[in-house]
Amino acid sequence: MSRILEVLKVSTRLGLTSFGGPIAHLGYFHEEYVKRRKWLDEKSYTDLVALCQFLPGPASSQVGIAIGIQRAGLIGGLIAWLGFTLPSAIALMIFAFVLKGLNIQHAGWLHGLMIVAVAVVAQAVWGMASKLATGRVRGTIAILSAVITLFVPTSYIQVLLILVSGLIGWRFFKTDTPQEIQPMHIPISRKTGVGFLTLFFAFLIVFPLLRLGIHNQGLAMFDSFYRAGALVFGGGHVVLPLLQRDVVPTGWMSNAQFLAGYGATQAVPGPLFTFSAYLGFVSKPYPNGIVGGVLALIAIFLPAFLLVAGALPFWNAIRSKPGFQSALAGINASVVGILIAALYNPVWTSAIKTPYDFCLAIIAFALLIIWKLPPWIVVVISALGGLVLSAIA
């Protein structure tokens, strides 16, 4: 019970302070779970990130769920998800109820939060590159992955890069001495893991078939959000077109309502997939309100939980094999490159517009790297800095 409460406490604080999108979340997680609390070592964390980048769904949330599972079992994974997700989900449902169409996209404090994301992502990239992209081959894999990702900005190219980089690692790093890895404590049997994976695929087949025969908006909503969570690679920004295609033409909401909710989503910490809570809340005719918000939220995150819980029981055995360790070295270098690309687009391009913005970003970076301030303090300082910049602009 003490571990479950500990997971709840830590994940909730992350859910309240982790601004900046999925790549920034990985930086917050690394600082809290690896460096500060030492719940897992660097190698286990980077391997988890590689696994979750490869799986469809919200990568940062999946990393959080996996860490919760290894710390406190399946309940720990659920608690880690709740703590990280509910703060932003509740905030977005309140936005839907109170703010209506109020435009918050140009608020100074919001711009400050976007700027601090640049510093957080840069810190994460710096730390991971120094460990995972060393040497000519790994460094080249990282740089080429960044360049290709920027030139071909689709989620599927990232999956292809990870596969190709794994093959390169398997080919070129064969002579490397296999690394001694610290096995992750995974309190799930392989039989249970197979059950979770079976449910993941069964829901993908069953819900569309039920939707054909049963005309019910609740079922249709669950099916739409479940498929969005199950079939998208690349995280929250990628899932938006899929959701818009399902919720606007069906008449569940107007395009203006959809865009207003997206603006509100940028103002809250936590995973971008919590946008689903807003969409479920404003949907019509029914379910909507709290019922609709909770239904949509569960549906879009359920695939992530099923995939992580299904894959983890096999992860120690797979990652300990010398051949896979070689492949994983290439995969991790590619992930660094993908993070470098994400640092530029969308993080940098959406936040750094003026020299003043850049000044605030490097101040935030210095507070994290040199002064070693906790990320949540840097977030608050940057939000205040954004207000100052908006006043003098």
Quick structural overview:
This protein has 393 residues and is mainly α. The chain has helices at residues 2-17, 22-36, 42-54, 59-98, 108-132, 136-151, 155-172, 190-213, 217-231, 236-247, 255-265, 275-282, 289-319, 322-351, 355-369, 375-392. The chain crosses the membrane at residues 74-97, 109-129, 141-173, 193-213, 225-243, 263-282, 294-315, 327-347.
Features:
mainly alpha
Describe the model.
With 393 residues, the chain is mainly α. The chain has one domain (1-179, 188-393). Helices cover 78% and strands 0% of the residues. The chain has 16 helices and no strands. The chain has helices spanning 2-17, 22-36, 42-54, 59-98, 108-132, 136-151, 155-172, 190-213, 217-231, 236-247, 255-265, 275-282, 289-319, 322-351, 355-369, 375-392. Helix 2 packs across helix 5 (108-132) and helix 8 (190-213) runs antiparallel to helix 13. The longest helix has 40 residues, at 59-98. The radius of gyration is 21 Å and the shape is globular. The termini are far apart.
